[in-house]
Specification:
single chain; 423 residues; Spo0b-associated Gtp-binding Protein, Chain: A; Rossmann fold; GMP Synthetase, Chain A, domain 3; 3 domains; 6-stranded mixed β-sheet; 8 helices
Length: 423
Amino acid sequence: MFVDIAKIRLKAGKGGDGAVAFRREKYEPSGGPYGGDGGDGGSIILQVDEGLKTLMDFKYKRVYKAENGEDGKTKKQYGKSGKDLVLRIPPGTVVKDLKTGGVIIDFKDKDEIFVIAKGGRGGKGNAKFATSTRQAPRFSEAGEKGEEREIILELKLLADVGLVGFPNVGKSTLLSMMSAAKPKIANYHFTTLKPNLGVVRVEEGKSFVMADIPGLIEGAHEGAGLGHEFLRHVERTRLIVHVIDASGIEGRNPLDDFYKINEELKNYNPKLSKKPQIVVANKKDIGTWNEGYKILKEKLEKEGYRVLPVSAATGEGVDKLKYIIWEELSKIEADYETFDEVVEFKETEEKEEIVVKLEEGKFIVEGAFIEKLVYSTNFDDLDSLRYFQNTLIKKGIVEKLKSLGIEENDTVYICGFEFEFFD
């Protein structure tokens, strides 16, 4: 079992600001407010893509931002909404909140989608603030900020590809050449005592998980060596890559090696012999390789196997092998597992939160709602200032300041701005 993890930061788009504009047409000397609303910011959406096998692409890019909404325009024209950003993830991905560790969503179904960060709402233009007593408002509303969050993507999956073969045929070296895995490699038998896993990246959007299954020996199906444990790992892969030392440098016959390993697989579980299998004739860099390769190719290709010449030590043939494995995997259905135990993530609503406090002798007002109000206010305009003051009263901010002991001419700090208090 393998858990692929990626931590990413998301920032949805900010809503566009509403416009302040007035009608200027001929014969309309006292034209009314004409400013349009800002467009909504783009959201960030997670969407399941069955073609993806790993979270490899999220290791190269960690920050994702959606498009901001466009500001409102004159003639009551709305600003254009920002484009949503769609992030494609493999099935079986669990999304967790970085701060709490709680599970936000567990993706189990194909084509499932989820809005993980919502874009900010566009601000209203001054045309929306006109009333019977306020006929020419010179202020508009600022757009809301988009949601920002840090999440963890976790993918619990089985290896797509299992490397099998006798000990010391070059499986660990091949894995290290194809992925970022760093298995222990040495020139003696049973270097690998447990499966090493690596994510192999073919190109953007194409990657797979490969497991270096520890070397099998004759009698493995009966439990010889660590046979049963090793064979269980092979059983759960989708494709077998059979690595053979075609040079015969250790005195074994390459063709005999192939049949002996397949016999062990078949004896353990007949289904294993039916799994798709690619044969890798390894150690091309050794002089005695040619003879062994010719024998393998002539015999096994007649039986329907594909035999590929490779040197894991020098890297020759490795890139071609990656693409061939990917092509084979695309023909085989994946088997993903999701997490059984989850810690529920509880969303907290912060947009309307207003904090009013007395700290070190300073009266402070802050919060997302009040920040938006401040940036929406034109303090040079009497109507806008009156709207600002009325909102403070309606939201209970003035009453709360009085309860904290504020007096005439005291300074109030609102989102970094200083205001003088008058009752």
